[in-house]
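Hey Z.,

So I finally got round to the NAP thing we talked about over coffee. Here's the setup:
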Amino acid sequence: MQVNNLINGQWVGADSGATFEVINPATDEVVARVPLGGSTETERAVSAAHDAWLKWRGTTANERASLIDKLAALMRRDADRLARLMTAEQGKPLAESRGEIAYAVSFLDWAAEEAKRIYGEIIPASAPNKRILVFRQPVGVCAIITPWNFPSAMITRKLGPALAAGCTVVIKPAEDTPLSAIALGELALEAGIPAGVVNIVTGDPRAIGGLLTSDQRVRKLSFTGSTEVGRLLMKQSSDNLLRLSMELGGHAPFIIFDDADMSRAAEAAMACKFRNAGQTCICANRFYVHESVHTDFVSRLSSAIGTLRVGDGTQEGVNVGPLINDEAITKVESHVADAREKGASVLVGGQRVRIKGLADRFYAPTLIDGMTADMRVHHEETFGPVAAVRSFRTEEEVVEWANSSQFGLAAYFFTQNASRLIRVAERLEYGIVGANDGGPSTVQAPFGGVKQSGFGREGGKYVMDEYTQLKYISWGV
Ligand code: NAP
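And the result:
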């Protein structure tokens, strides 16, 4: 299957005709071929987005809300098809893909409502013959660059509010998962969103990113991906003083205090760690367990891991799919090997799972005990199904360990002590804290990180600040 890019309402290939393959990570089958675009195609997409913006910014909030609502309705109509496409290109189990589509739609639903609440203000002036009016206006053409781990939701979380605010967009999806983005583009056209408002370009990330950060018609870049690429894009954006939102890597600590509800903590730990085969930016990477409940927690986790089924995400009952690509599984292997070398014990898993007829990209859900601060699992994002455990004695000590990371996206802890709950939540240097909760992501909350996990917030009313700018009119009367 050959699919194309969306530029100015037209489906087009790369100028050179070149394409690249999208591979099913579970089976190695070629799912589709997509254009290998570069700066020329991106420049055209930016022109289209800019021209479209001149009209789109003048539409009423109700018109924009209604088009976003239509797009959401079409995604609901096609939810099953979109979920299957996602599993084919990304590998996550079908139930998770269905969950992601519902999550992706929730951002459109929310944005359609927010479109109607972009309010200005009137500020009392200091002179009797003046009035000060504050307007909130769309920033303009937005570049959206997204990762492969949530191929649909990471786009709608940006696209919805951008459209709601009156911005137009050029989307560059990850090369591993461009098909969910392209499917979204088809539905945007079907919904009646005007040509040029939503553009999608696939291909060479450096060339596309280079153009998006240097063309002066682009006024904002919203990026979700690794800290490394985020830093690079931020440097590239400095000449144009681009407005930026940076949703970057995480390395979440998951703390279990001695007074935790152990059954709830273990259940949350499983979901938080093994969802999407551990390939989520907010998934727990470091488990810190109080020494008095350590044996209990490790035994609960070992039993629960034993119930997980690894395999092709289209198969009934599979809850852990493949890693996204060969590089990803090699990284997971190297983290486990490093932990072993430095003295950790691998209690469960610790090797690839080879399944007849499938690709060699499955890694066994793994439990490592005896993690120490010098191990890679302790200070790098593993992005795989590996839970590493370290015992602690005091609250002071564990909060210090938790904060010792350069990352600051999500942190979790379990305790039944209300004073401790507030104390620890306040001291954790993270943008998102799950207190007795392993699944804090939700449409109405301000998702985002601190430190090297980036800046900017997505979700709720807060995201509208990312796509609007203030202007005031000082009015002499
Ligand atoms: P990545 O390698 O940084 O890629 C993200 C996107 O950037 C992809 O579309 C990629 O394109 C593009 N890209 C790569 N190099 C580029 C360049 N030089 N110029 C412009 N664009 C470039 O990250 P990933 O491996 O896809 O995703 C995993 C990372 O995302 C993890 O660190 C995870 O924690 C983070 N993440 C964060 C959040 C959050 O909300 N904070 C959410 C999800 C994921 P290609 O695919 O074509 O290379």
